[in-house]
Design a protein that fits this description.
Order of helices and strands: HHHEEEHHEEHHHH
Number of helices: 9
CATH architecture: Orthogonal Bundle
CATH superfamily: Intergrase catalytic core
Keywords: DNA recombination
Protein name: Tyrosine-type recombinase/integrase
CATH class: Mainly Alpha
InterPro entries: DNA_brk_join_enz, Integrase-like_cat_sf, Integrase_catalytic, Tyrosine_recombinase_XerCD
Largest sheet: 3 strands, antiparallel
Structural class: mainly alpha
Organism: Candidatus Methanocrinis natronophilus
Strand order of the largest sheet: 1-2-3
Helix content: 40-55%
Length: about 190
């Protein structure tokens, strides 16, 4: 089995160039850097951040598994996060939307799809039930890229499981079975 929706690090870097705002760059950097699901990240509040410890606390009612977890935030994202939250109140949304609630996961999907299209890295892999084209680059693609990159860097499988919030190690182990092209690139660096 291969992971059908996996992009290269080079495609990710091209995607980052085409983001219209600092907010969008930060959201996409956090999706990739933490491996969080889009709904988990959009459901976060300023008070869920611990920038001293470099953690994002994902509350149980906001996660797919309904279990609390703390995800590590990459060190390089701490300064832009500090700047982003500024003096905002702890109870405010980390990424507020226009109507007072959080930015919607749907809007984040649109931002990513548009940036991927402009970067020339969007590839169609199928169609939805209503006939819309489905692109390979999505928030969940960034979660896949996080997992594969982490394993390539030597992160133990059980640590990746905790970061991603998988209840079963077998769910996480799917990332060990990446496609042939990814394996070739990994071995080329070896």
């Amino acid at each position: 089995m291969t992971i059908p929706k996996l992009i290269s690090q080079e495609d990710f870097e091209k995607l980052m160039v085409n983001l219209p705002s600092e907010r969008d760059r930060l959201i996409i950097s956090l999706l990739y850097g933490t491996g969080a699901r889009v709904g988990e990240l959009m459901g976060a509040k300023v008070g869920d951040l611990d920038l001293t410890e470099g953690l994002l606390h994902l509350q149980a009612h906001k996660t797919k598994t309904r279990q609390y977890r703390a995800v590590l935030i990459p060190e390089r994202l701490l300064p832009p996060l500090r700047e982003w939250i500024g003096g905002r109140e702890a109870g405010g949304w980390l990424f507020p939307g226009q109507r007072g609630g959080p930015l919607s996961p749907r809007r984040v999907r649109q931002i990513i799809a548009q940036a991927a299209e402009e970067a020339g890295v969007q590839r169609i892999y199928g169609r939805s039930a209503d006939g819309r084209e489905l692109g390979i680059v999505s928030p969940h693609t960034l979660r896949h890229l996080h997992a594969v990159t982490a394993l390539d860097a030597g992160v133990p499988l059980n640590d990746l499981q905790a970061q991603l919030g998988h209840s079963s190690l077998s769910t996480t182990s799917v990332y060990l079975r990446t496609g042939l092209e990814h394996r070739r690139r990994s071995y080329a660096r070896f």
